[in-house]
Amino acid sequence: MNKVLVQGNVEGIVLKSEDPINFLGTVDKKTGIISDKNHDLFEKSIANTILLFPSGVGSSVGAYTIYSIKSNNSAPLAMICKKADLTVATGCALANIPLVIVSEKKFSSIQNNDKIVLDTKSENIISTIF
Amino acid sequence: MELTREEESALKGEQGEIMEMAYRILVATGEATDADRLIPIEWAHLSGVNYNTIGDAGEEFLSTISKDARVKVKTTLNPMGFDIDNVSNYNVDDNFISKQLSIKNSYETIGVIPSFSCIPYEIFDIPKENTQVAFAESNAAIHANSYDNLKTNKESAFSALASAITGKSPYSSLRKEDSPNLSIRMKINNPTELTYGMLGFFAGKVGDTSVNISGLGEMDRRQCKAMCGGMGTSGTCAKFLFDEEKSGIEKIDFDEKEMKNVYDELNTTEKGDIVTLGSPQLGLDEISDLTIKLKGRSFKKRCMVFTPRMVKEQARKLGYTNELERAGCEILSDCCTCLTPLINKDNVDAVTTNSIKGAFYLKNSNGVDVNLKSLAQIIEDETQ
Questions:
Q1: Is the pLDDT of residue B345 over 90?
Q2: Domain total in chain A
Q3: Name one Pfam family in it (chain A) (predicted).
Q4: Is B28–A93 a contact, with Cβ atoms under 8 angstroms apart?
Q5: What is the complex's ipTM, to 2 decimals?
């Protein structure tokens, strides 16, 4: 079951992570680059991707990081998570970044570098473009 | 989520832009936590105060909303980037100082109590059992739910702000019931506060919204704080339960092997250039204990001690601050080990601390290496 937390309609390339993301401290506010050596997206930028990751973790101030990367044009086009957390939900709500929660099965079915359309008003919210 | 007619009208913007924004955040929060309605809260504690963490976008956002936004309930505030009394001693750049002061002014204009502390549970009176609050500081939310018999989501900076402005929060499952997804059996002998911090960090990784812990002996206040700080850093989990016989859920052990994994993840060097204590900030009994431990000893290197201003005043009256300063400690209020511009990689390569939360953010955000030790070990190794 998909659950829409923030509405939107975007098209883009998936950047997939199997690790949760602590937005505060591990995501650069200006560039959107991940600085945590133990993270599977280490040194990658999340800017302009459709970011697929299990959930946000860590400090509540991470919501401001999401707001900052949006203000600095370094935010993902949309985010897709397995688990809803308040840092990501409220950061995306304030920054108007579409956010969808998907099932484990759906999460597994979307691959890194897939080109997808995410439209929260459509019947099929996430569709892959081949 | 069901909204009342008045809440619907606020969401539509009929009560101004601030209320529209606040309700949009509360609705996203409610959807994320499967809430069916909003309920009143009596106390909000806000994060998002340090210019280091919220940046220019955050500073401008707060400056803009402070023109109209006002809090409806008692609202307290997390630490900022420096101690306002002695910021001139620390080579903090002028831009940082002016942006930080702008953030401070915005919050004061909104009507927030300028407590600048991440341990509201130690410096304010705790309301009666089951009072609904909205705490954004992660260690404080876990502490409130697990030890103080209060009810809060592990709020985000924005959801707590929205709750402060509206006096409401989504009635999510965490406010209603306790359903730990697994039980952790503590299997470490002679634990120190560092052990509890690592246990918290481990629990945060494996826990869902709440987690059961068994095998704990008597814990003191410092150990509780260390657990909450560790847990808040690594996960979304917002509550510890302490039920020895929780049946029907998966059980896992926190043993020497798991502890070593956490230690190896967070400890990146064997020696620090400076010592920092207080993340979460130290309370009065920890200051008292530190004073006793330092009797007749002094630090061989710089030691920064972070404590709330209210605690520092009490400690001064009791003579503790004199004694700590004699032992070489710099005592700082209004700020905390984590994410302060007072510690950065231009002048410090590595930090020794007993804080798991401090260790994580010092490494990942400030870019300095971390040497983790218990307080007793720090006193033994770093003082003479």
A1: no
A2: 1
A3: AcnX_swivel_put
A4: yes
A5: 0.82
